[in-house]
Amino acid sequence: MALIELEDVRRTFTVRARTGRFSREKREVRAVDGLSFTVEAGECVGYIGPNGAGKSTTIKMLTGILVPSGGRLRVAGVDPARERVALARRIGVVFGQRTTLWWDLPLRDSFELARRIYRIPDRRYRENLGRCVELLDLDGLLDTPVRQLSLGQRMRGDLAAALLHDPQVLYLDEPTIGLDVVSKGRVREFLREVNRERGTTVLLTTHDLTDIEQLCGRVMVIDHGRVVYDGGLDGLHEAGESERTLVVDLAESRPAIEVPGARVVKVEGPRQWLAFPARESAAPIVAAVAARYPLVDLSVREPAIEDVIARMYAEVAIG
Amino acid sequence: MAEPLTGTLAEPLVEHLAEPLTEPLGARTRWAVRSWWLCAGMWMRSTMAYRASFALTLGASLVTHSLDFVVLVLMFRHTDQLGGWTLPELAFLYATATFALGIANLLVGSVDGLGARIVNGTLDTMLIRPAPALSQLCAERFSLRRLGRPIQALAVLVWSLATLDVTWTWDRVLLVPALLVCGCVIFGAIYVGGATVQFWWGEAKEIQNSVTYGGATLLHYPPTIFAKELVAGVVFGVPLAFVNWLPALHILGRPDPLGLPTAFQYASPLAAALCVAVAGLAWRAGLRAYRGTGS
Prior knowledge:
The structure holds two protein chains of two kinds.
Chain A: E1 2-18, E2 24-40, E3 44-48, H1 55-62, E4 70-75, H2 84-88, E5 91-95, H3 107-117, H4 122-136, H5 151-163, E6 169-173, H6 181-198, E7 201-205, H7 209-215, E8 218-223, E9 226-231, H8 233-239, E10 243-250, E11 263-268, E12 271-277, H9 283-292, E13 295-301, H10 305-318
Parallel strand pairs in A: 3-7, 3-8, 5-6, 6-7
Antiparallel strand pairs in A: 1-2, 1-4, 8-9, 10-12, 10-13, 11-12
Helix pairs in contact in A: 3-5, 4-5
Chain B: H1 6-9, H2 14-17, H3 25-48, H4 51-75, H5 87-108, H6 114-120, H7 123-127, H8 133-139, H9 148-163, H10 170-196, H11 205-218, H12 228-237, H13 245-252, H14 268-293
Helix pairs in contact in B: 3-8, 4-9, 5-9, 5-10, 5-11, 10-11, 10-13, 10-14
């Protein structure tokens, strides 16, 4: 069952810029420009793109806050813009930079409010709270005022608050921002567990690509309001025409060496860096270098996912 | 607890899906009030986390608001009448206007934080909850410390009612509580309607404050001392005259400076209903514009 469906969804904003003392110029900005994709129930999708690519505009349309300028949009079978409040009961939203917890009250009070606002049946509430407390290790924190919690603890509290009403979809906006490595790991582990155990569909925007690598079977890259890549993480390397790097330590310093199928990108004393397409095997290049030059040591470096995506953005900007 | 709850958790959300997507107005209103109540309760307990501060600000607000009335009393040390009205009569106007504004401010006054929430994006966090955003906004920072103003007004009202030289017929007696309720509703509607302007124009908060606080100060004084155009403006424009002037004319047995039909003196409930309707429609239009044009 497709839980999220977008068909040629567009959203334009009118920006008024002051051009003179009295004159103003109206300009249309297309934040989302013909977006089409579907997300099946139970998927965990990473939704990434540079700032201003249209990520938050998409999330705002999916939650019903913003009305699309055009196209068709369905979440859990309903039109979010028309049935925002009804939809609110079926989705969970976590903003990494904005807590929805009550600052001066014990964590438990925020959960109690959720129980009432979302009209969660008592038994379901007890079960879900118990499970969240267990998985997120919140046991000793329930009676602590939120302002006394660390950032990581607060994020765990926010996650629990967003899941108490059994949402079918969970939108996460930068859920690990500002967290230390341990807290990040804990949040990711919890999300994996929720996705696996409850089949909650997760849509995650992030700038931390480790989140994606560890959580998402599918990545959507968006830029200038369009999907520029949609598929597995592995496919990103090919789509991004990424390159692997062969680092060779020669017996002595020399000018850039010549090897077929690779090009030298950097020389530093006897060490040289050779880039070659990620889909090619390293073996023939290593053989070619070894045959021509005295070789002391070598290593192959995989492309960093950040670089792949950065290259992808750059291509879109040029193309 | 440790036992996995996979079975129960993965079930379809039957009770949510069965819920009618568009509920009748009555149910929506009840839900809006309940949402307000829930959020206000949270805020109230939040402020109770700082008890000393609560006691101090409540005390300070009682004292500062009382000064308003002290000014009136001092004025009457030099004169017996103002615009033909005596001190107990003025006290009645002062108390009713202040009480209405105070209660409206307590219950919905925080709605004027709308502009700030639009700017910093936190209105969105309200819109993703199933509770009405207006309820959440009005309940924001709800605190009983704001009771200082209405408590003080009630004290003045009691004194005024005890001192007034009025024949208390049953219609006059009934008009007093009706006037207080309608006054609160009218000021509440003005708060909400005024805040709605911030959907289009973020700096509109000051304009709204000049209507609410300025309006209440206007209503402290008898309509006879103002120009007729101004009085007509608060009857037919921003209907502040229905908060206390018009019903007070009947209660105190005073002639209407505008010579309006006596029906106007009983029309406060109608004016209040009209204000609520206009404010409600304005809010809906504003929210629609926000979601349509974004920020």
